[in-house]
């Protein structure tokens, strides 16, 4: 079931679990960043508590095969 996305920026629920999910899906921060159209510095900011636009969060969730609400505070 899809979750609606609010318009304010979102952050990760659990950065350590997010990193494990990235690896489980065959990515590293750099590769995931490239696949969603950003750079590894931005991905590092997100993991360290930085916020992102909802559409970027949606793209990440899609690449990791999870619902956006599974990994992001929405």
Q: What descriptive keywords fit this protein?
A:
single chain; 74 residues; mainly alpha; 434 Repressor (Amino-terminal Domain); 54% helix; globular
Question: Would you kindly provide a written description of the structure presented here, covering whatever features stand out?
Answer:
By secondary structure, this protein is mainly α. It has one domain (15-71): lambda repressor-like DNA-binding domains (434 Repressor (Amino-terminal Domain)), CATH 1.10.260.40. 54% of the residues lie in helices and 0% in strands. The chain contains five helices and no strands. The two termini are 15 Å apart. The mean pLDDT is 91. It comes from Convivina praedatoris. Residues 18-71 form the HTH cro/C1-type domain. This is HTH cro/C1-type domain-containing protein.
């Amino acid at each position: 079931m899809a979750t609606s996305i609010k318009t304010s920026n979102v952050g990760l629920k659990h950065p350590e679990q997010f990193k494990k999910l990235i690896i489980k899906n065959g990515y590293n921060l750099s590769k995931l960043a490239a696949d969603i159209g950003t750079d590894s510095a931005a991905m590092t900011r997100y993991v360290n508590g930085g916020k992102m636009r909802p559409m970027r969060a949606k793209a990440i969730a899609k690449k990791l095969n999870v619902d956006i609400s599974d990994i992001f505070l929405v």
